[in-house]
Structures are given as structure tokens and as C-alpha cells.
Amino acid sequence: MIAEFGLASLWLAASLAALQLIAAWFGQRADGEVLARLVRPAAVIQAMLCGLAFLMLLWVFARTDLSVLLVAENSHSDKPMIFKIAGAWGNHEGSMLLWVAIMALAGGLIALIEHRLPEKTMLATLGAQAFVGLGFYAFLLFASNPFARISPAPAEGNGLNPLLQDIGLAMHPPTLYMGYVGLSIAFSFAVGALLTRNVTPEFARVMRPWILGAWIFLTLGITAGSYWAYYELGWGGWWFWDPVENASLMPWLAATALLHSASVLASRDALRTWTIMLGVIAFSMSMIGTFLVRSGILTSVHAFAVDPTRGTFILALLAINIGGALALFVVRAGTIAEGERFAPLSREGALVINNVALSAVLGVVLLGTLYPLVTEAFGVRVSVGPPYFNPVSAAFVFPMLLVLAVGPLLRWRRDRLARIRPAVIAIAAAGLAVLLAMWLIAGLALFPLLGVSLAAVVAVAAFLPLRGRSLARLPLPVWGMAIAHFGVAVALFGMSVDSAFTVEKLTAANVGDTVAVGPWRVRLAAVEPVAGPNWTALQARLDASYKGGAGQLLAPQSRTFWAPPQTTSESALLTRWNGQLYTVVGGATADGRWQLRLWWKPFVTFIWFGGVLIGLGGLLALVGRVSVDVRRRVATRKIAARRAEAAR
Amino acid sequence: MKGVRWSLWVLVAFAALVGLFALQLSRPKNDEVKSAMVGQAVPQFALGAAVSERPGLSNADLADGTPHLLNIFASWCVPCAAEAPQLAALERQGAPIVAVAIRDRSEDLEAFLQRYGNPFARIGKDDLSRVQFLIGSSGVPETFVVDGKGIIRHQHIGEIRAEDVPELMARLREARG
Questions:
Q1: Which of A431, A497, A629, B97 has the fewest C-beta atoms under 10 angstroms from its C-beta?
Q2: pLDDT of amino acid B28
Q3: In whole angstroms, how far apart are CA A457 and each of A435, A488, A492, A496, A607?
Q4: Average pLDDT of B124-133?
Q5: Domain identity same for B23 and B53
Q6: Same domain, B82 and B153
Q7: Is B36 a domain residue?
Q8: Per residue, what are the HEC states of chain B?
Q9: Phi then psi for A116, rounded to 5 degrees?
Q10: What is each CA distance from A401 to A451, A454, A457, A461, A634, in whole angstroms?
């Protein structure tokens, strides 16, 4: 019954979305006030019903109800509870339901709390949201029903791919989806603003927390996904330019650009049409990403359940939503009044360069990801990898980082170079000093050399805007900006140093042998069998000592899962402040030795620390913006109450 | 309006993208990347011996008048171990098999051959995957049928399963005649 209850909730939620769309459409008319009043309650109830449907799915997974097809295909009664629950979204149908549920909840939240924009714009926004939502409901109900039954029910489920039985990965898809969905909200706001020709700083301020939220989740999702790939796949790499990775990077790039342009619109009422366009582009990148991943038209290491009908469905949604919004843009963009003007040397000017560079990188990644598809249409098969992506994106990212260093120091509207000269000299000196030191002492190659120097430049520059201001009274968003920019420097430093100084050792060792890798000496102390809840493993005990220091224990495993049968290598990592020792154990050789793969990766952890700092910066900005908004609301309410009292 | 004109291009680009996606969706998906070298002569190469008990491999060894199976493998590759019994069966049926070991170490290779058998007459050591690139192989294991003149006749991608053995023998006979 639980599954049927979930399905019924989903149908009801879909019909409420239809009501929301119709009411928003006709509510725009002069005589439509009754309908207009239905829109917000419809959004809220739709959110509750859709949330309920998702809870029902979690429930059937928690109980391992094998008469539900999705559970039988993706779960197993032996799995630990946390992975049973995570199994609910570790597959196509469940993840689409999660997407729709988050989208409905976000829509309900807007309907409940957002009253700053003119009501007509809000109606149009909620209507657009319902329109996008309806497409996904149709997709779920007609092409990917998560509650379908199977008869007769099998005695046991298929299990979840063991690579996915990992807590990091269990949280990875929901995190990315929050990001995608946040961008769908930004998209709805952009469409709402276009429809009602109401592109104002207020609109940017209303949209901004949603972009920020989406951006934070995308940042953390990408960071976590990268770390997961790093320690779980046992290759020692952290980014592979795989189409699926690019599919999450592209929305992030668009969201980063949107975040900055929305800032300009909110503060200075400039970049009006551009911000709208980016709002559409950012969501289209989420949808293109979803399409590429789910349709299976690209070859990727991420094998998802691939189904051409689903691909067609997502493509149709993509064409209708994004094509419609772009067409609307073409018709309406000309009627939107031009915003404020500004001089090239100004905060706005720097942010425009940031936007152009980010869009260029987005174009580079999009082109590289799709290029194999384009040539394939002409019968040529190619694959595009790091030799293209690394230098070409660096060519845009490196200059952008220079602008990032200087931009926050500039004043809005117009500035003089002479005013910021001392700061620029300080930044340049730091960069040049590091450049020379690294070149002369370490003899780095070009890209790592530029990377480390730019990291120094950005790190110094990140905190210069705080100079001469009272730190205690500094608004949180400014702190957020400084920390996020500093995070960029930290991540860049980690990437550059890792690529320049990593030491790798592949060897076969007897128990008792000692292997040297970089500053480490690693002794293979023992190899022993261990058993887990649904796997058995051979576990190596490694005794690692750094520069002759005390030994530390590492225990990498070669795991064998039995449902489904698969072998994975569980790497063991030893983290110091200045890097990570990364160990993998393989099978035995015929003469009784064990295959060991060891890496010493200096400062590699900085890559993910940087990612977390960027996310933290976003979080501070979000908290700052929302708390200001809440305070303003409380104040207006008090004033209104006082007025009402006075009138009495 | 200026704003309209550039956005029109975005719309056109988007339409082209959707068209491309639709075209690719409508085509049957084939994940195997066939070598463009099938039908052509094996390019010139000479590899040193990978293990002490077998000689290395050059393109001249492949053009010695008899057709060969050329197996691309590595000791670190799990499917390569899985196809060992099938390679042994092919050898028993009289197929001359030579091999290229990709990015491998001699001691690992010796252990691998000791454990899974050694059906190879020659094994070349290819530490940079050079030969793999030359003959258009995209992974391990792969098996090529090369005729007596050194021309690639057939490419088998992935491990050889029991049901693939008759087909490979037939391809070899074809290459002979």
C-alpha cells in the first residue's frame, strides 16, 4: 500500500502543479484575481504532496519491499540501513523523484515567504516553476515510475553497485540536485521577470539567495565528488574531464557568472539583460548535464542506466523549457530598459571581465564535452581529454584570476588606477617573489609555476578589500567574498603543487619488505583477510614512517562484494598537513608477493580545502543576505503594527 | 535592438545543439571504437622482449608468411586473466599467437604467465602504449588477426569468451586463404 500511496501523492502533486500553472496564467488577467489567489496555496500543497511521495519511496527502500521493482533492482536485504536509504536515490527513477521533490519544496517555500516582488511577477515566476515542474512530473509518471510493482516479487534484490556503497557518494547526488534545483528557481525568476518586463535590483536581490544556495551546493557537490573519485577509484587522480564531471562543472561555471552579475544588478542596476540570459543559461546547463548523463549519448566512466526513451523525454523538456525561454528572451530583451552605465575601470568593469572569462571557460568545457558528438555526426570518432581542457581553460582562468585579484579593490561605477596602485604593487610583488623563488629553487614547469604564483597573488589579494575597515562591523557577504576568493587560491595551490611534485611507486613486495616513496618509508607488515557486512577483503597492514619518524598504520583493502559480485580496491590514506600518502593493495603475484601502489601527494588536500572554503564563503554571504532580509521584515512588520495602533 | 540580435544567435546555437542531440539519440549506440587500421598493414615497430623466456616482437615477425593472432594484454588487467583459458584453447587448435604487453613489469608478467599459462610465441614490451596507438587499439585486452603479409584483417575488442573462439579460428583460416 505504501507504494500506491506514494504514487497517488505524486499524481495529486502533478495535478496541483497543473492548477498552479493555469491559475498563474489566467490570474494575470484583470478579472483573474480569484484564480491568482490560488497560486501560492497550490504551490505549498504541491510541495507537501511531493515531499510525501519521496518519503514513501524512502520507506519502501528502508523496508526492502521487494515487490517494488525499483527496490528489487537496486537494493538487497543485507545492505546496511544507511545504504538502503541512499539506494532510494542511487538510481534513475528515485533520483528524478528527489529532483522533483526538492524543486516542489523550493517552489512551496517561495510561495510561502517571498513578498518583495510585484505580485504579477511572482505569479509569472510561480507559473514558470509549475511549467518546468509539470514536465518533470510527466517524465516521472509516464517514463520513470519509481513505484512500479513487480509480480511475483523476487526473494532477494540485486544489490547496489558496491562502488556506490560509500557515504560520500550517498550524499553526492542529493547535493548536486539541490544545486540544479536552485538554478531552476533562478530560471523561473528570470522567466517571470521577462514575462512581466520587471528586471530591477529588487528582482536580483530576491533571486540571489537561490543562486547562492545552488552555487554552494554545486561547489560542495563537485568538491565531494572529486574527493570521492580520488580515494575510491584508486587511481590517485582527482579530476578526469569526464563528460559527467563536466556536466556538473558547467552549471557551476554558469552559476558563478550569474552570482557575480546578479551582484552588479542588485547593487548598481546594471547588466539587466545579461543577468536574465545567464539565469536561463545556468539552468540549461543543468538540464544539458542531466541529458548527457541520462541519455548515454556520450561515453563516460560513469555508467548510468541508459535508456533512449528517457533521453528523448529529457531532450523534449530541454527543448521546450530552454528553447521557450530563449525565444521569449529574443522577443522581450529589446523591451527591457538599459541599466546604469559604468566606466571600464570600475568594479562593474572587473565583474564584466569575470563574466566574460567564466563564459569562455564554460564554452571551452561545453565544446570539449560535445566535440566527440559533433565529429561522430560526421562519422569520425575522437575523444577529448586533458591535453585540450587543461591548457585551453587555463588560458582563460589565469587572466581571470588576475582580474579577481584587482576587481574587489575597485570602486563601483568609476575608479582611478592611481588610487589602487599601492595595493596592485603589493599583489604583483607577492606574485613575482613566489614566481622567482619557485622557478629558481624548485625549477617548476610552466603551468604549475604560473599556478603557484597566481595562487599567491589571489591569496594576498583576497584579504586586501578588508584593509582599513572595522573587521567586527564588516558585513558577512564581504567576509564571504574574501574567504571564497582565498579558497580559490588554496585550491589552485593544491592543484599546482600536486601536479608538480607527486611521487608514484608501483611495486610487488614480500611481507616484511620496505618501500621508499618520496619522504616516506613504507613497510608491508602483514596481509590478512577481513570480513564486512556484505563483502570480504584482503587487508594489507602498512607501517609508514615520514622522514624516519614514528610508524603509522595504514590498511588498504582489496574488497570482494557478493551482491552483485565485484572487486574494488579500498585505498588507505594518511594525511599530514603538507600532503597525503595514498596506498592501494592489489592481488598477490605467483611468487607470494603483493602488488602495492603508493603515492606521495604533497598538498593535494588543499584542492578540497579550497573547495570547502569557497563553499563556506558562499554560506557566509547567504547567511548575511538572509539575516539582513529577515531583520528588514521584522522591522517593517513592527512599523506596520505601530501604524495600525496609531490609526486606532 | 542590439540585445535582440546577439540573443538570436544563442537561440540558433541552442537549436543546433538540440538537433545534434536528437540526431545522436536516433542513432544506435555502439560503444566499441573500431580501429581505423583494419585492412591496412601493421606500421613499423620493434619491441624488446618482455620476459626472458620469449623473444620480443616487431612488425617483420608479423609479416613472415603465416597469419597470427596478435593479443594486446597486461598482467594488471583482470579481463586479460579471464581470457587466458580461451587463448590456451586457440593455441591448442593451432593458432600462432604473439602478444604485446602494455605498461607492464617483467616480474609481474612472469608471475601472470606462470599462473594463467603462456600461449604466446613472442611477447613485446610496450611501456608507452606506442604499438597500441599504431594499430588503433583502445584498451586491453584486444586481439587482432594479422595475415601473412602483415595486414590487419580483424579486431576483437574485449576479452575472448568461449563463444568467440570458433569465430577467431575462422577469421584466421580466412586470413590464410
A1: A629
A2: 62
A3: 10, 11, 11, 14, 17
A4: 84
A5: no
A6: yes
A7: no
A8: CHHHHHHHHHHHHHHHHHHHHHHHHHCCCCCCCCCCCCCCECCCCEECECCCCCCCEEHHHHCCCCCEEEEEECCCCHHHHHCHHHHHHHHHCCCCEEEEEECCCHHHHHHHHHHHCCCCCEEEEECCCHHHHHCCCCCCCEEEEECCCCEEEEEEECCCCHHHHHHHHHHHHHHHC
A9: -80, -30
A10: 10, 7, 9, 10, 40
CB-nearest to A334 from B1, B11, B112 is B1
Q: How many structural domains is chain B composed of?
A: 2
Partner residue facing B33 (CB), from A323, A381, A508: A381
Which residues from chain A sit within 8 angstroms of residue B111, using beta carbons? 508, 589-591, 593
Chains A, B: CB pairs < 8 Å: 82
Ranges of residues in chain A whose predicted pLDDT is under 50: 301-305
CA A442 to chain centre: 35
What are A458's three cell numbers? Answer: 589571489
Of A312, A323, A586, the CB nearest to B14: A323
pLDDT for residue B1 is more than 50: no
Q: Which CATH number is B139's domain given?
A: 3.40.30.10
Contact A277 B4 (CB under 8 A): no
Least confident stretch, B11-15, B23-27, B168-172: B23-27
Residue B38 inside a domain? The answer is: no
CB contact under 8 A, A277 and B21: no
Q: Note whether A323 contacts B115, CB cutoff 8 Å.
A: no
Say whether B25 and A311 touch across the interface (CB within 8 A). Answer: yes
Are residues B169 and B121 both part of a single domain? yes
Rounded Cα distance between A625 and A266, Å, is 12
* Set of chain A residues whose Cβ sits within 8 Å of the Cβ of B114: 590
Q: Are residues B169 and B134 in the same domain?
A: yes
